Amino acid sequence: AGSTNTHWWSRVERRMAWFASLALLGALHVAALAFPVLSHLALCLRRHKDLRRRYGAWAVVTGPTSGMGRSTALELARRGMNLVLVGRNPAKLRDISAAISKAAPAVQTKTVVLDLSLVSTAQGEKLTLR
């Protein structure tokens, strides 16, 4: 009778070990899935920094007439930063400057017409000496 109880108990211990191992594996898997979600949530819920106090009142944005440059310029304006907009096309620079003035009337903008790809060329040197 004693060996039967021991045999029965060892089977229970093995099953408990398997259960504990699988539970631990499941918990690690859930943690691995939850970490990116929680870190993204924390990023979304954190307060935005006061950019003017940290970096100064003015920011330079290159390529503000389209794409990421435009989005960056509009977001910085929304956060109250004054902007120096650097681009190649004067008409497009006027358009984005007007859009910023409409979206954030307190924000000042200055435009600089400059093709930065020419800066390291002889033509660019002439432009920067003006």
Summarize the structure.
Pfam families: adh_short (PF00106). With 130 residues, this protein is an alpha/beta fold.
Please describe the topology of this protein.
Blueprint: H1 2-45, H2 51-55, E1 58-62, H3 67-78, E2 82-87, H4 90-103, E3 109-113, H5 122-129
Helix pairs in contact: 3-4
Describe the structure.
Strand 1, helix 3 and strand 2 form a beta-alpha-beta unit. The radius of gyration is 30 Å and the shape is elongated. It is an alpha/beta fold and 130 residues long. The mean pLDDT is 87. It folds into two domains: 1-46; 51-129, NAD(P)-binding Rossmann-like Domain (Rossmann fold, 3-Layer(aba) Sandwich), CATH 3.40.50. It is built from five helices and three strands; from the N terminus they run H-H-E-H-E-H-E-H. InterPro entries: NAD(P)-bd_dom_sf, SDR_fam, VLCFA-Steroid_DH. Pfam families: adh_short. GO terms for molecular function: ketoreductase activity. Keywords: Membrane, Oxidoreductase, Transmembrane, Transmembrane helix. The chain crosses the membrane at residues 16-45.
The CATH homology group name of the largest domain? NAD(P)-binding Rossmann-like Domain
Level-2 CATH architecture of the largest domain: 3-Layer(aba) Sandwich
- The H/E string reads HHEHEHEH
- Uncertain segments: none
Q: With helices defined by DSSP (H or I, 4 residues minimum), what is the helix count?
A: 5
Query: Distance between the terminal alpha carbons, to the nearest Å?
Result: 103 Å
Round the Cα radius of gyration to an integer and report it: 30 Å
β-strand amount: 5-15%
Share of helix among residues? 55-70%
Largest sheet: 3 strands, parallel
